[in-house]
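Design request, tokens follow.
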């Protein structure tokens, strides 16, 4: 199926990045936010990132203008009626996503594909909110979407093969390195990375080492490109705790549960890089 127009619902950290990838790949993108102001802020962020690519000679100035001209913003979901693919990137809340997918099913043509960027919710459960679950897939981008190569293309229980292949093709055209996987909690990367990072945080206390020492151990000894404490600070302590709790709820494996130390950090507002302090301080 040929995709020409992509809808992106929710233009926060992930949605804005996905919209940027879409316009850079030559798609017409309709971005939907809950207020015009939030939509404008996302457009400014995208324009800023594209400007930096122009400055670094990664993009011609006309290409930037052409890409930005392919982006339209709306607060009205019915403006997505003509989209061939809609990628949902709203808050990680099952109720909100179910409601959105029910609405999207009414608005978007029956042959259009509906994708969710959820990290830890069940794509199958989201698909079940519609009467056409065969057209629902997961497209799990990583943060920051414009820079991270991987996209997990998630096959839910009832996803049609054609929908999976079309989503895979879109990710490839966006210059990504997609993989196909089944809808299991955490998909591939988070299923492995979340308990591993929780082990790292527990090791801080068990081995009585500082975050600096632990990061040195994992970069110099295990070849990680970035230490675990630096990584969790970058991801956001709250985001990591939320993902751990969601995986623990589904799999009941003790290693999935967030260690008390990091829950306390979240509760104290130490959220990592974005709040100025997590395992490290950022000025
Ligand atoms: N941040 C990450 O590291 C990351 C990585 C991969 C996937 N995800 C997933 O991507 C999704 C979005 O995460 P995020 O970090 O971008 O969140 P975010 O809070 O930065 O952005 C969510 C945006 O959605 C908007 N929104 C909420 N309801 C809406 C609606 N009904 N219609 C349109 N817009 C709506 C909000 O105004 C907000 O701007 C979540 O499902 C999350 O699990 C996040």
């Amino acid at each position: 199926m040929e995709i020409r127009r992509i809808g992106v619902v929710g233009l926060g950290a992930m949605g804005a990045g996905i919209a940027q990838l879409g316009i850079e790949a030559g798609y017409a993108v309709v971005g939907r936010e809950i207020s015009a102001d939030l939509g404008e802020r996302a457009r400014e962020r995208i324009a800023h990132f594209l400007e930096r690519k122009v400055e670094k000679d990664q993009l011609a100035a006309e290409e930037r203008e052409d890409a930005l001209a392919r982006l339209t913003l709306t607060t009205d979901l019915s403006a997505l009626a003509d989209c061939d693919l809609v990628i949902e990137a709203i808050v990680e809340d099952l109720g909100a996503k179910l409601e959105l997918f029910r609405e999207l099913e009414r608005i978007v043509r029956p042959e259009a594909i509906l994708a969710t960027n959820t990290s830890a919710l069940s794509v199958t459960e989201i698909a079940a909110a519609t009467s056409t679950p065969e057209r629902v897939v997961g497209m799990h981008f990583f943060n920051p979407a414009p820079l991270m190569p991987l996209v997990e293309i998630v096959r839910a229980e009832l996803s049609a093969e054609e929908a999976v292949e079309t989503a895979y093709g879109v990710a490839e055209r966006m210059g990504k390195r997609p993989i196909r996987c089944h809808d299991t909690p955490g998909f591939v990367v988070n299923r492995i990375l979340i308990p591993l990072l929780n082990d790292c945080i527990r090791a801080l206390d068990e081995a009585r080492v500082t975050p600096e020492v632990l990061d040195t151990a994992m970069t110099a000894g295990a070849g990680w490109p970035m230490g675990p404490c630096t990584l969790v600070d970058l991801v956001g302590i709250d985001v990591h705790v939320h993902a751990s709790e969601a995986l623990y709820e589904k799999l009941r494996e003790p290693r999935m549960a967030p260690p008390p130390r990091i829950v306390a950090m979240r509760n104290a507002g130490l959220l990592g890089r974005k709040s100025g302090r997590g395992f490290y301080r950022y000025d």
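Comment from the thread starter after seeing the answer: thanks! Residues 5-182 form a domain with the Rossmann fold fold (CATH 3.40.50.720).
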